Amino acid sequence: MAAQYVADRRDIDFVLFDQFDAESLTHHPIYADFNRKTFEMVINEARKFALKELLPTYGLGDRQGVQFDRGTVTPPECFRRPFELFREGEWLALSEEPEVGGQGLPFLVSNAAGEYLIGTNFAFSSYAMLGHGAGKMIERYGTEHQKDLFMKKLYSGEWTGTMLLTEPDAGSDVGALTTSATPNDDGTWSIYGTKAFITSGDHDLTDNIIHPVLARIEGAPAGTKGISIFLVPKIWVNEDGSLGEPNDIVCTGIEEKMGLHGSATCSMSLGSKGTCRGLLLGEANKGMRIMFTMMNEARLGVGIQAFSHASAAYLLALEYARTRKQGRAVEEALDPTAPSVPIIDHPDVRRMLLEMKCCVDGMRSFAYYIALLMDHHRMGASPDDQEMADDLVGLLTPVLKAYNGIKGYDVCTKAIQVYGGAGYLRDYTVEQISRDCKIASIYEGTDGIQAMDLLARKLGMKKGQVFMELLARMNRTVEEAAELDATRPLTEGASKLVSRLGDCAMAMGKSLLEGNLRTAFAHSVPFLEIMGDAVMAWMLLWRAVAAARTLKSGAKKKDIPFYNGQIKGAEFFFSNLLPVTMGKMEALTALGDAAVTMEDKGFGG
Amino acid sequence: MAAQYVADRRDIDFVLFDQFDAESLTHHPIYADFNRKTFEMVINEARKFALKELLPTYGLGDRQGVQFDRGTVTPPECFRRPFELFREGEWLALSEEPEVGGQGLPFLVSNAAGEYLIGTNFAFSSYAMLGHGAGKMIERYGTEHQKDLFMKKLYSGEWTGTMLLTEPDAGSDVGALTTSATPNDDGTWSIYGTKAFITSGDHDLTDNIIHPVLARIEGAPAGTKGISIFLVPKIWVNEDGSLGEPNDIVCTGIEEKMGLHGSATCSMSLGSKGTCRGLLLGEANKGMRIMFTMMNEARLGVGIQAFSHASAAYLLALEYARTRKQGRAVEEALDPTAPSVPIIDHPDVRRMLLEMKCCVDGMRSFAYYIALLMDHHRMGASPDDQEMADDLVGLLTPVLKAYNGIKGYDVCTKAIQVYGGAGYLRDYTVEQISRDCKIASIYEGTDGIQAMDLLARKLGMKKGQVFMELLARMNRTVEEAAELDATRPLTEGASKLVSRLGDCAMAMGKSLLEGNLRTAFAHSVPFLEIMGDAVMAWMLLWRAVAAARTLKSGAKKKDIPFYNGQIKGAEFFFSNLLPVTMGKMEALTALGDAAVTMEDKGFGG
Question: Where does the record place the Acyl-CoA oxidase/dehydrogenase middle domain (chains A, B) (predicted)?
Answer without folding.
Answer: 163-270
